[in-house]
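#structure-requests
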Amino acid sequence: MVCYWIKRITITGNFISLILILYACREIREDESYILATTGMLYDITKNISPNFLKVDYLMGEGVDPHLYKFSQIDLQKLNKSTIIVANGLHLEGKMNYVLKKISKKKMVVSVGDSLNKNFLIPISSTLYDPHIWFDINLWKECVKVVSNNLQLKYPLYKKEIQEKTQKYIIELERLQVYTKKRIEEIPEKQRVLITSHDAFRYFEKAYNFQVKALQGISTTADYGLKDIKELVDFINENNIKAIFVETSLPTKGMEAVLKGVETKGKTIQLIEGLYSDAMGAFGTPEGTYIGMYKSNIDKIVEALK
């Protein structure tokens, strides 16, 4: 019998009280062949390197913003049923952190971001780090290894199969790196400025010598105002930026305001929609994989800025 009670959580800094109702006293059996990933990107890792007998599932699909994610009863059943939960960590899952901490006392929760060497992470305060680690492919390869090592611990009889699939997937990621570097070289260095809705591309900036500006902060829970819009409009005008981008998991309203602000200055700029940040595309499409998502982003960025 798995029994959770209503908890009241105060999120420090935002002064928001969150009520999480975690499925009261419902019997849900744990399934040894069922693994759950929180995000689509982690689902892609886990699916690619898991033994064939495992069923890999996910919580957050196409267009879901993990910063604002809210539980459903079906999601809670998935959490209780799973034998391993693969999470991003570094506070990406926001409101889920409390739940994952409680569940980790009863089952394996793999927090990939929190397992990485902090020297390779981008700090945003003395205790917090940027959670958008999948935009640095080198870091993402380390995340693959974290998931792989934990799968091998949990399923030692399938160690060889997991290792072989891990190596194959890492080779595919290395090919993605080659593709990305080659395409980015098409953009003159002075034009490598990426302007997006929220600040999710710092690891991309660091890996590929870009300058990144955003309307919102690291988390989409951060609000923006007229001052932020004006500052971004001024930056675009002063630097002759060719395009701005809107992510699939966010509304276009903010960047449309920036676009209008630029146009009132007598300048023209492209508004490019469909950039993937906190969520991939629909599963079953190329953009519903990590590699396909990444390539889609690179192609959009290069074609707009070169």
